[in-house]
Sequence to fold (399 residues):
Amino acid sequence: MRRYIQHHAYYTRTLLSTTSTAIVRRGAAVNMIQLKTMVNVIDNSGAAIAECVKVLKMKRAAKIGDRIIVVVQKQRNFGPESGGSVSVSAANKVRRGDIRHAVVVRTAKKYQRPDGSVVKFDDNACVLINKGGEPIGSRLNGVVGKELRNKQWSKILSLAPMHL
Amino acid sequence: MSLAPSSARPLACLKQALRQCRAERHQLRQYATAESHYPSLQTRYPAPSPGFRTSHATKQNRPEVNMKKIAVVPPPRSIKKVCPDPIEALYQSQLKTLDPTGARTRLFAKTNVDRAQVGDILLVRLKSGDPFSGVCINIRRRHSPIDTAVLLRNQLTRVGVEMWFKIYSPNVEGIEVVQRKQGRRARRAKLYYMRKPSHDMGSVEGVTAQYIRQRAGGTTRGKAGGQKKKSKSKK
Fold:
């Protein structure tokens, strides 16, 4: 990780990943996305960590591709190159305390696919969307689950750098 | 006065009962004479001749000589002899379709010295979707050997990912050992400690890409893979 620090672009990433590793452990303990679960936000909407307050249309824990309602708990602090607190608020499309819809893209809970293989990620992650289902951010960083394809989240899939 | 002895000697009635019993038995013994008195007791068959023995009874007392013989069916063959181990037979029949060459079985056979073990980096090529590579941290042989599965761990975009693959799954095209475990063999059967940040191997994408390039023999395909990987890391 240290060798990337020279790059500014990497600098922001390193910061983000250090915050997310702290969350990974918390998320792994809960394992299922339900009320009060802290979820990583992996888009550039400006939120870093969000808390799940509702799993929509379900009486169970959310899986990959399920829609949830979250409260933004922690904002993303962009690197020093973005310049001061003014631009931080300008760059962020969401703020702390905002209630937003989101789609789960990774779960730390094992999920068995129809072909018998099982997939499990190290953290719980989501992507913020508006009520129409369009993603709020314009970029995603991080792998997302392939289950999104069957649930008509193709826009998120196309934004993602990798899907599994 | 008649009641008194019975209440005083409760077993007195036993004597009367035994007496009655004896009388009945005596009557039974004189059954032959009794049946002349009771027409319902008479048999259709002639009375046994004098000097009759029970051993004669089979021939003498059976008028249905021409009766149809009922064929005696031999007991069915014991299923234990037909198929001593049905589970094993089922496994073999499944292997014939799922692993005709036997390569997959050999790769994970415990008798094979060069088998895939935990700690090795494996590459699973899938029929649908991209190949997945990772450190094998668990090999699960459960119930039947046909259920054998491997747990691979890798890091993609710096997120730990674990996947279970059934080794005989029709969706799995091939499993290759990219790299053996470095140093000694693992001292555990399940390397779950590799989930801890202090023991995590990190991404094995680089090792896999190099392996794929080597296998391709430095062709354009391998180079393209390398370039693609470079651009990915630049992003």
